[in-house]
Amino acid sequence: MIMDAFPSEPYSDLSDDEVFARIAAARAALGDDALVLGHHYQTEAVVRFADLKGDSYELSKKAAESHARLIVFCGVHFMAEAADILTRPEQTVVMPDLEAGCPMADMASRGELESAWVQLAELGNPDDLFLPVTYINSRAEVKAFCGLHGGLICTSANAGKALTWALQRRPKVFFLPDQHLGRNTALAQGIPPAEITLWDPVLPLGGNSLAVLRQARILLWKGHCHVHTRFSTAQVRQARQAHPEAKVVVHPECPQEVVAASDAAGSTGFIVRYVEAAPPGSTIVIGTEINLITRLARQYRDRTILPLVSSMCPNMYKNSPRDLLHVLENPGRVNVVRVADEIREPARLALQRMLDL
Ligand code: SF4
């Protein structure tokens, strides 16, 4: 992957109003040549300039459909990589801040995955037994591994479909990197807990016996999102005591017991639609990243929208309006995200399998 970064200090002496005015001017000058995508977890100061808002699934589809020469992805690094993989060679994907990564995506590397495949050969040919499914919140190299081994990508919006697709093709699924999304999805598909096991990449056989691995249908990589594992059943109980009329809705990156204690669970797109569909006067307590909840509370003032607890993604927060101005005033010249060709093609295959679901 080649990344070009230049410092954006020249903007530090501008007032916020000057920054906003220059972003608007730079955006207008680019016209249809640019598409600005904003993930739901971006701050309001950034996402207000997005042409399209959405979750990683919605935005990756929009990037694939777009003809704009410059895609500005206001999100974290794996999202910009996915956009680069799906777009055409004449299109350039940039991010406001290249340092906006995702710790969960960094919990699984291709080397660790290849080591797992070597160890799983004790059960037989892993490519006959296991289909790798990676959450889109993963490195491009991990997506490429999945593409090369018959697997696919999923998002929190289509993980159920992806699991069904995978189990129609091979007896077992190797799901990574988020154990919670994997567990919540598998349980929702009716897979018994005894057929689900955790794979810890630092332990031999992932910390399992061969007997456990033979019985398991779902192997879950030991990864998690620190933003969503902050939520607990005690918080759900407290919310219900304080607001007995409230519905509690959480993201499936939350631990299974939190999902079980809630009224509904789904992707950020699902949460947005849940709030939209709620009648005026209703109370909804949400367990996901705080920027989305704050925006929904502002947008739907006739409903009471509350966080289960305030949990912010510091990585999403790294993209500032000044960073956005930097990439818009230097179109295609700074903060470019390019995935190497040998990774791009197999990763695209895995992404395309997801888009075809
Ligand atoms: S919310 Fe969690 S999964 Fe999403 S970018 Fe932040 S750390 Fe990664």
Report the portion of residues in β strands: 15-25%
**What structural category do the secondary elements indicate?**
alpha/beta
CATH superfamily of the largest domain: NadA-like
The percentage helix is 40-55%
CATH architecture verdict of the largest domain: 3-Layer(aba) Sandwich
Summed up, the helix count is 16
Task: Please describe what this structure looks like.
By secondary structure, the chain is of the alpha/beta class. It has three domains: 2-101 and 316-340, NadA-like (Rossmann fold), CATH 3.40.50; 105-224, Rossmann fold (3-Layer(aba) Sandwich); 233-307, Rossmann fold (3-Layer(aba) Sandwich). 42% of the residues lie in helices and 17% in strands. The protein contains 16 helices and 15 strands. The strands form four sheets. It has a five-stranded parallel β-sheet with strand order 7-6-8-10-9, with helices on both faces. Strands 3-2-4-5 form a four-stranded parallel β-sheet, with helices on both faces. A four-stranded parallel β-sheet has the order 12-11-13-14, sandwiched between helices. Helix 14 (290-299) links the parallel strand 13 and strand 14 (304-307). Helix 4 (77-86) packs across helix 16 (341-355) and helix 7 crosses helix 16. It is globular. The two termini are 28 Å apart. Mean pLDDT is 94; it is low at 1-7. Bound molecules: iron/sulfur cluster. The site of iron/sulfur cluster has 12 residues, from loops. One of its GO terms (biological process) is 'de novo' NAD+ biosynthetic process from L-aspartate. Pfam families: NadA. GO terms for molecular function: 4 iron, 4 sulfur cluster binding; metal ion binding; quinolinate synthetase A activity. Its cofactor is [4Fe-4S] cluster. Its EC number is 2.5.1.72.
